[in-house]
């Protein structure tokens, strides 16, 4: 009987010691995790990129030039985008490894075909926070788009858009902040 009591006492001591070690381990681990974060890491947010611009492209009769049913529509696979680099050269955007190989997509919304220019360019294409792009609809027709981008630490947002030198979108002007910018031919 004494042997059994002795074993029980040692078992209880062992369990107490194990519980105490586990408690100390959890406490030390928690302190290490909490103290390892720096001020900057606590402020990290997801990156928001809203630099794309959406365009409606119409002829003089307000017919949708991106709609394949419109006479004289712009063939979607023939459209190309060139971006002005800070060395003065226009570079055609052609990256077959990307989903948006030519830096645009065309989609339908409420019956309209819309052209979305993404502006997937690096810093060498930003001149005074502006990106200048030429959309070549075909061999004979093109438009120059200039987008002013507000670049913050965790977000880039297009705030103004000029089409062929005319301001067509201004985030701060309610008369010019329609999400779809019109290009009339």
Write a structural description.
By secondary structure, the protein is an alpha+beta fold. Helices cover 21% and strands 35% of the residues. It has two helices and eleven strands; from the N terminus they run ααβββββββββββ. The strands form two sheets. Strands 1, 3, 4, 7, 8, 9 and 10 form a seven-stranded mixed β-sheet that branches. A four-stranded mixed β-sheet has the order 5-6-2-11, with no helix packed on it. A hairpin with a 2-residue loop joins β5 and β6 (112-117). The chain is globular and about 45 Å long. The N and C termini lie far apart (103 Å). Mean pLDDT is 81; it is low at 1-8 and 39-45.
How would you describe this structure in keywords?
disordered N terminus; 21% helix; single chain; 185 residues; 2 helices; alpha+beta; 7-stranded mixed beta sheet; 4-stranded mixed beta sheet
Number of strands: 11
Distance between the termini: 103 Å
Q: Structural class, judged by helices and strands?
A: alpha+beta
Give the biggest beta sheet: 7 strands, mixed
Total helical segments:
2
Inertia-based shape: globular
Please state the average pLDDT score: 81
Rg, Cα atoms, Å:
30 Å
Instruction: Note poorly predicted spans.
Output: 1-8, 39-45
> What is the helix content?
10-25%
H/E topology pattern = HHEEEEEEEEEEE
Percent strand equals 35-45%
């Amino acid at each position: 009987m004494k042997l059994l009591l002795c074993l029980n006492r040692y078992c209880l001591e062992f369990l107490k010691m194990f519980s105490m070690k586990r408690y100390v381990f959890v406490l030390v681990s928690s302190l290490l995790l909490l103290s390892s974060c720096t001020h900057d890491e606590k402020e990290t947010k997801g990156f928001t990129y809203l630099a794309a611009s959406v365009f409606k492209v119409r002829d003089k009769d307000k017919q949708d030039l991106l709609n394949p049913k419109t006479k004289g529509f712009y063939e979607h696979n023939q459209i190309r985008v060139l971006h002005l680099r800070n060395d003065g050269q226009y570079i055609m955007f052609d990256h077959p490894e990307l989903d948006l190989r030519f830096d645009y997509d065309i989609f339908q919304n409420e019956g309209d075909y819309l052209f979305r220019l993404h502006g997937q360019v690096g810093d060498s294409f930003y001149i005074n926070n502006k990106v200048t792009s030429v959309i070549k609809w075909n061999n004979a027709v093109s438009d120059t788009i200039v987008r002013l981008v507000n670049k913050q630490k965790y977000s880039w947002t297009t705030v103004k858009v000029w089409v062929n030198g005319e301001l067509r979108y201004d985030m701060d002007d309610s008369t010019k902040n329609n999400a779809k910018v019109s290009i009339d031919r």
